[in-house]
Amino acid sequence: MPLVSIITPSWNVEGLIEETIRSVQSQTFTDWELLIADDCSTDKTPEIIAGIGVRDPRVKLIRQAKNGGPALARQASIDQATGRYLAFLDSDDLWLPEKLERQLAFAKEKQAALSYTAFRRINETNTVAGRLIGVPVSLTYGQLLKNTAIATLTAMVDREIAGPVAMKNEGYDDFCLWLSILKRGHTAYGLNEDLARYRVRGSSVSSRPLRSAKWVWQIYRNVEQLSLPRSAWCFAHWGARAWLKRREF
């Protein structure tokens, strides 16, 4: 069985998906499966994935029956994952070649239920790379409520330590997942190394700051069921960190 199952939702990324897959195929650690759940793309995305899968059986296409958004697509990939570790990579983002090797060694050393790394942003054409976005050494549940540090493309979950992994069909389903793991008493650990590239696209799900803020508030109140004062306190810290992260490319 592959040690790492890579969880990837896709939708209408025919111009980007091959580069994303290539960044996985270029990993120095090779014991992986890439599970791409296509959310009813109307372009050639699924055909591109299927074609690559013929040449590399580690790349597996999962076709969603109807368009349901990234949370349900991620869950479809998780449902078919066979690896102990789950790594998350969106269909327009990239990994540097040593990402899996370095993070696996780090996660094993820390016995981390959840780990994450530093990264840089890139523009849509991959011609500009931004500043290094560093990460804190560790995060507890209470600290993560006030933080934006765990970028999806950098996250890795050890299922043997973390326990059940299930996505909630919410905006920022990934944030909900990290919180659900840490709420069990685990600590997340950060590897402050430049190992991933987050692509900034105007059409991406998380590209609108006001909508992102609304989603986070809803998670505080409806999912985590925080009191109004605690929600406001966490939201103030989250908003400040989000602004600091966005103010410079």
From TrEMBL:
Residues 5-134 form the Glycosyltransferase 2-like domain. It holds the Pfam family Glycos_transf_2. SUPFAM superfamilies: Nucleotide-diphospho-sugar transferases. InterPro entries: Glyco_trans_2-like, Nucleotide-diphossugar_trans. Gene3D superfamilies: Spore Coat Polysaccharide Biosynthesis Protein SpsA, Chain A (3.90.550.10). PANTHER family: GLYCOSYLTRANSFERASE, UDP-GLCNAC:BETAGAL BETA-1,3-N-ACETYLGLUCOSAMINYLTRANSFERASE-LIKE PROTEIN 1. This is Glycosyltransferase family 2 protein. It comes from Bradyrhizobium agreste.
